Structure formats: structure tokens, C-alpha cells
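Checklist before submission:
- one chain only
- standard amino acids only
- sequence pasted in full

Submission:
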Amino acid sequence: MKKRHFIYIATVSILFFSCNKTQKREKSEMIDARSKIIEAKIINKKISENKNIAYQNATILGDISFIDTTNAIIETTESLRNYVESSIIFSNCTFKGKLIGRISNGKLIRLVTFDKNVTFINCTFQDEVNLNEVSFDGQVMFRDCQFDEKSTFAGAVFNNRHNYFTGSRFFKTISFASTRFIGDVGFMNTEFNKVIFQLAYFSETVQFGATKFTDYTDFGSCRFRGNTFFNYAFVVDNQLYINE
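Returned file contents:
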């Protein structure tokens, strides 16, 4: 099995091609052109009350926390999991604060499971997105989004059949280390600066068509069980790692 896996990854990797390093895009410093100003505490209250969340053309001020729901259960002596029953939809929004899906106070780790769909379309995250070890049971969509700061989905589990990061841009380090994609996942036309997929598991089809990897790229010890596409993808500076 390992031999066949190695041949498969080697075959996929030849679809990459390199070019001279070009100037990286800088994150936008433009003043927000959004129509509404929303305090994050309003959204946090709705999440805690299991109300559906839907905002369009808004600037969100403050940190959004998914760990303050009332229906939390104890998983282990060291971890507590909160279940978010709200459907989450944001379109054309700017987030000035963080997205928080995991915290640790040294004694207790608080984690999150999203029961319903999580959708962000054409959104800008100007601060950290921390969805480390989150479980997504509904469809996940981060389409045409911009991540200005270091973010993480490390250890997250995507349980739905369809998941999308199509057309998004990550200006700082993004980690999908040890992430499990149980269904399909699309990264077509996505732009990565530094990205870590080490130990990630892809159960079904994964699409990296026309994706740009402009800096350090790590696919070390990944497992690909379905069709994998890198058509027209390229690495700018050759710092690509694909190994057993």
C-alpha cells in the first residue's frame, strides 16, 4: 500500500511547475466599504441562544466566539465541547476581530462542533481565525475570502460531503496540519503564502486546480484516498515538500 501511495503522490506532484518569485500581494489597507457596523457581542449572544446567523455587507467589530453556547458536554477530564446549533452565513463582510473556535486556560480545553452549515462568501478576516480542532458537521464554505493574519484549521474534521475554500487568499501562515476531510474539498484558484497540510487526510476528491503556492508548502505524510487534482497549479519558490 505504501508503495502505491508513493507512486500516486509522485505522479500528482509533476503537475506542479515553478516560476521566478514575484512580488507578493500586500493585504488591503483600504477603508471598509461595508454598509453596516455590527458589534460582535450581538452575534455572540445569538450564537449562545442557538439563533441562526445571517449578515451581508457588514463590518464586524470585536471577537466572535463560538465557545459560549449553553449546550456543552464534557468529553474528557481535560476538554469541554460546545455545540453550535446556529446556521452561520456571512456575505461581503469584514471582520476586525478574531474568530475563536478553541481556547485553553492550561487546565481545560474548550472545543467546538458546528451542527449546521458554515458559510463565508467574499469576506475579509483582518485578525486571527482560530478553528483549531473544530468539527464541522454541515457544509463548509470559505469562498473568495481574504485572510490577513495567521490562521489555523489544524486538527479540524470536515464531516460533510462538500467543503469549499475556492478563490480564497491567505497572506500569512495557514495550517491544515492533521486536518481530516471526510468529503470532497475544493481549493481551486486559492492563493497560499505559507501553508501546512502535514498529516492531513483527504478521503474523497480534492481540487487544487490553478492554486498558487507562493512560499513554504508542506504536504508531508498526507494521505490521499480519492482523486487529487493539481492542474495548472504552481509553486513560486520551489519550497514544496511531499513525502511519506
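Reviewer check: The chain has a mean pLDDT of 85.
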